[in-house]
Automatic annotation (TrEMBL):
Active site annotation, chain numbering: E247
Domain named Aldehyde dehydrogenase: residues: 14-473
Keywords from the UniProt entry: Oxidoreductase
Annotated family: Belongs to the aldehyde dehydrogenase family.
Ribonucleoprotein listed as a keyword: no
Molecular function GO labels: oxidoreductase activity, acting on the aldehyde or oxo group of donors, NAD or NADP as acceptor
Segments traversing the membrane: none
Superkingdom per UniProt: Bacteria
InterPro entries listed in its UniProt record: Ald_DH/histidinol_DH (IPR016161), Ald_DH_C (IPR016163), Ald_DH_CS_CYS (IPR016160), Ald_DH_CS_GLU (IPR029510), Ald_DH_N (IPR016162), Aldehyde_DH_dom (IPR015590)
Protein name listed in UniProt: Aldehyde dehydrogenase
Species annotation: Bacillus yapensis
Length: 490
């Protein structure tokens, strides 16, 4: 079993309390590693280190920051197989997905490396020609980055790449359920040659995260996780009045119209809900199907779902791994039972796996059908391999059902009618709308939610503004004396 250390100010350390948290492999339920449970003092030390390193990092040329970020991307690519294996061992995601995601992670750092020396301000022409005015983008300072367990490294890249490119220093707190890949990744940060203290990784449970975000020297929080935790964090951060980015959960509608390519739409529905065992914020967990094609879609979907290959996440043939931890397993099984009690019709799955070779937290890919959009399984985030199918008759009803949610993260539309697709895309309340595709990501596109799915954007150049202040600088070029008792507006 491996015992890991946290990275604080360039030093690897265990906790002075000598306490550790276990990390379990969800495939076999065995403890395979331990992470230090840092004390509040040690978390504070990490923030202070980041604060001390801020001046050097922010004043480094954009080109030098870019060079380091490119070097980091090279190292991630070089170590992609290893990092993917670690990620799959820690959270049970299938290796065919984690390998892909690690390369996507490298791409993300490369994307923002390209911006590190292009943080442009603008010269603003004013009414008064004797005033010179321009803006500059300035880093915020120490940023706390808190990530969820479902995709630790890709989620981190969404935050860390723009934070570093724009000149911030950071303290990262990964989830206690999957911290190992972040700690292994931190070794690459060191190897790439980032100055000590620019990137710090602290480990522990939710209390460690709480101590981090409350620290007076933390100037911004970027959080990926559940809506309830986000509410707790928002309350704490509101005392300090610092900016916050929240990437939260969803109950995303995936809408299939009768004029869709049904084969493609069914594959899209499977990708939307059974990719990553449904443990993805963008899971297309509500499948809205036009009534005229309901039976065909149900049948095709159940047929495909029953063939999904559950197995060892490290086997490249495996299509669905276990869910990531015991809490998640119990929650999902509980929601399946509740759905049955509330009258949702079980079309397939609905149990933990009966394959006796699989000892981990396996749940069969599960599909419910209901005409009642108010049953819990149709409105609450499961964060597991459970799909709910709901029928609709008209476009208006599809829009109403799609928007009848507290969440607004993503949505999918399947139709051959391109005009209808674009009209609908504009009316759907979500941060991302996919047309004739689902769960397709690119680093250049802004990603984030509305409503209880959070606010702020990740990936894309827009994210540069999440990690900078815009400063306006005005210069008087005139020799005229002004009236000191009246604001100068001309
Ligand atoms: P979570 O329980 O909210 O935890 C998220 C992170 O917050 C973990 O690192 C957790 O640490 C930490 N944390 C817990 N309490 C805290 C506190 N009081 N102060 C500061 N940090 C605290 O969420 P999760 O179960 O890990 O992740 C699942 C959720 O994340 C789902 O709702 C999913 O939809 C959402 N998600 C959203 C996105 C997106 O981009 N929109 C992406 C992925 C996941 P511990 O784990 O150590 O307690």
């Amino acid at each position: 079993m491996k015992i890991y250390q946290a990275l604080v100010g360039g030093q690897w350390k265990v906790s002075s309390s000598e306490r550790f948290l276990p990390s379990y492999n969800p495939y076999n339920q065995e403890e395979w590693a331990q992470i230090p449970l840092l004390t509040n003092e040690e978390i504070s030390e990490a923030v202070e280190c980041a604060h001390r390193s801020f001046k050097e990092w922010k004043n480094m040329s954009g080109l030098d920051r870019a060079t380091l970020l490119h070097r980091l991307s090279d190292l991630i690519e070089e170590h992609a197989d290893y990092l993917a294996e670690i990620e799959s061992t820690d959270n049970g995601k299938v290796i065919r997905e984690t390998k892909n995601q690690i390369l996507f992670t490298a791409r993300n750092y490369r994307y923002f490396a390209g911006y590190a020396d292009k943080l442009l301000g603008e010269a603003i022409p004013l009414d008064n020609r004797e005033l010179l005015d321009y803006t500059i983008m300035e880093p915020i300072g120490v940023v706390a980055l808190i990530t969820a367990w479902n995709s630790p490294l890709p989620l981190l890249a969404n935050k860390l790449a723009p934070a570093l490119a724009t000149g911030n220093t950071v303290v990262i707190k990964p989830s206690e359920h999957a911290s190992i890949s972040t700690l292994e990744f931190a070794r690459l940060i060191e190897k790439a040659g980032f100055p000590a203290g620019v990137v710090n990784v602290v480990t522990g449970d939710g209390k460690a995260g709480d101590a981090l975000i409350r620290h007076p020297l933390v100037g911004k929080v970027s959080f990926t996780g559940g809506t309830q935790t986000a509410q707790v964090i928002s309350r704490a951060v509101s005392e300090k009045l610092i900016p916050i980015t929240l990437e939260l959960g969803g109950k995303s509608p995936n809408i299939i119209f009768e004029d869709a390519d049904i084969d493609e739409a069914v594959i899209g529905a499977v990708a939307g809900i059974f990719g990553a065992s449904g443990q993805t914020c963008i899971a297309g967990s509500r499948l809205l199907v036009q009534r005229s094609i309901l039976e065909i879609v149900k049948q095709a979907l159940v047929e495909k779902t029953n063939k999904i290959k559950l197995g060892n996440p490290l086997d490249s043939e495996t299509e669905m791994g276990p869910v990531a931890n015991i809490n998640q397993f119990n929650k999902i099984i509980g929601m399946i039972e509740e759905a049955k009690n509330q009258g949702a019709i079980l079309l397939c799955g609905g149990k933990s796996s009966e394959n006796s070779n699989l000892k981990g937290f396996y749940i069969e890919p599960t599909i419910f059908y209901t005409e009642n959009p108010k049953v819990n399984i149709a409105c609450e985030e499961v964060f597991g391999p459970v799909l709910t199918i709901l029928p609709f008759d008209s476009v208006e009803e599809a829009i109403h059902l799609a928007n009848d949610s507290v969440y607004g993260l993503a949505a999918g539309i399947w139709t051959r009618d391109i005009k209808k697709a674009h009209r609908l895309a504009q009316q759907i309340e979500a941060g991302t709308v996919w047309i004739n595709t689902y769960r397709t990501s690119q680093v250049g596109t802004p990603f984030g939610g509305i409503k209880q799915s959070g606010f702020g954007r990740e990936r894309s150049w827009h994210t540069l503004y999440e990690y900078t202040h815009m400063k306006n600088i005005m210069v008087n070029l005139s020799d005229n004396k002004r009236d000191p008792f009246s604001m100068q507006t001309k």
